[in-house]
Amino acid sequence: xxxxxxxxxxxxxxxxxxxxxxxxxxxxxxxxxxxxxxxxxxxxxxxxxxxxxxxxxxxxxxxxxxxxxxxxxxxxxxxxxxxxxxxxxxxxxxxxxxxxxxxxxxxxxxxxxxxxxxxxxxxxxxxxxxxxxxxxxxxxxxxxxxxxxxxxxxxxxxxxxx
Length: 162
Hints:
Blueprint: H1 2-5, H2 9-29, H3 39-73, H4 82-102, H5 109-161
Helix pairs in contact: 2-3, 2-5, 3-4, 3-5, 4-5
């Protein structure tokens, strides 16, 4: 599992989780836009609501790839705890954006539409991907490093016996 966390599949999986949960949250929440007077705005925001998940996932994956390239250039690729941090930097941006947007007042039709159609589903998706990344980083990376130290200690004690 540690090998999976340090591979390129882990950021791809987290970006797919971000996109999938955001689209699923939009489908579950079913925003109607009843308090918005402009029907053209509602139609555009419905398209934006369905599209925000895949767009956020794709942009996050691109940012994570750029950050991993920078890690490779400065020779920090082998540092195990940096990989989940890199993923959190790519996904955490959407969590902050959606959190800040949901704190905004609903003064105009556009603001109300953005909050209902975009921010709330994006918050669900980014929160799920962030929590999953943190849980996997906490439970998988330390346990793998403990096992490797136990193995090395076991090898050194078996060499001493001979």
